[in-house]
Structures are given as structure tokens and as C-alpha cells.
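Question: what's this shape?

___
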Amino acid sequence: MGLAGPRIKQRIPSDPRNLTWSNDRSKFGFKMLSKMGWTPGKGLGVNETGDKEHLRIPHKQDLLGVGANKKTVDNWLDTT
């Protein structure tokens, strides 16, 4: 066995973009925003110019922490 770890087969879910979850109108956040006057398709904020879609989160393939990348890990002395 070499230095590389074992290969792990990645499972692709039936709904990789989680559209069924994001379109579910029975969730707590959707109900709360609706009670405050928000309607789907409008932006957030007083002028309704805020984000109209949910945040996109990249799938992490490594064991680094949140927000860390290979460049910051290699240059840890430069950040002190």
C-alpha cells in the first residue's frame, strides 16, 4: 500500500442540488419569513434587493477545517 489513502466511491444522491429541500414550504425558515411579509422570488431587506437564492456551499473532499484551503495550510508561518 502506498502513501495514498484508500479509494472511496462517492455516492451521488438522487437530488444532488437539494431542490426538494429548498422548495419545501413547510420548513421553519420559510414560515418565519412569510409571516414577516416576505414572498418567494423577492430579495431580502428593506428595499428587497438582497439575495434571492440560497447560498451555495462547495462539497469538501479533504479533512481541512471550514474556510481552510491547501494554500493557507502550507503557509501557516506567514499568517502569524
The helical segments are 19-22, 28-35, 70-74. Residues 8 and 41 are 39 Å apart (CA to CA). The first helix runs from residue 19 to 22. The mean pLDDT is 79.
